[in-house]
Amino acid sequence: MGNMNIAILQFPGTNCEYDTKYAFEKLGANVKFCWHKDTSLPQDTDLVVIAGGFSYGDYLRSGAIAKFSPVMKAVSLYAKDGGKVLGICNGFRILVESNLLPGALKRNENLHFISKHHYLKVENNDIAQKTISMLLTLHEKVLMSKEETLKTLKEENEFLKYSVYSIQEVYESSQETIKRLQKQLEICQEELEFCKRKYKLMWNKAIDDTVGK
After folding, report:
1. Among 51, 67, 101, where does a domain finish?
2. Cα–Cα distances in angstroms (integers) from residue 107 to residues 56, 97, 114, 155, in the given order
3. Are 96 and 108 in contact (CB under 8 A)?
4. First and final C-alpha spacing in the chain
5. Could you tell me if 5 and 21 lie in one domain?
6. Which end of the chain has the lower number of beta carbons within 10 A, N or C?
């Protein structure tokens, strides 16, 4: 990646651009920032990166306002001409909202913000296989798309394939957890009703015994 020129976009609310800059510079790349009001990208750009954060405070929904920023017109033209674009976290959502990626993102099933560690298996011919822990912090996690689009993503390369599988596993695991919790809640409600009836009978009996004396 040495001598590669990276353009990192900045929106109001972006908070990971300097982390991203640091990571690419550690790999030997040259990094420049592009403000959301810029109407063009640096001429020598090899890769555009949209970093994570909360662009425009995630108002309406993640990426919904950022897609209208002037710089995104330049990014769209750059991508259509074959340029490489990487969206990280909030940046990925901006790419989906801008129709540079297919599909749509669905809110978490519990409608709450999720922040937890998830284990990702790294598989690459250049490095040893290993499992790394990554922190997931997101409002949306499920990519809703046509079946043929998901199939293409899975088959396109190893990284995307395992990423999609990983996302599906997290979603399916969450669904199973929700079902188990719902079942446990039903059982607790039944036990609560039983206890209410039991103690009501015991209380009535105690009153009758007291009155009888």
Report:
1. 101
2. 18, 14, 11, 26
3. no
4. 93
5. yes
6. C
* Tokens linked to 57: 């405070």
Which pLDDT tens digit goes with each residue over 128-151?
456 666 666 665 555 555 666 666
Residue 68 binned pLDDT confidence (cut-offs 50, 70, 90): very high
Among 101, 131, 156, residue at a domain's last position: 101
Is 139:58 a contact under the CB 8 Å cutoff? yes
In one-letter notation, the amino acid at residue 124 is N
Rounded distance between C-alpha atoms, residue 148 and residue 151, angstroms: 5
pLDDT at 126 over 60: no
Domain limits for position 91: 1-101
Task: Give how far the C-alpha of residue 197 lies from the chain's centroid of Cα atoms, to the nearest Å.
Answer: 46
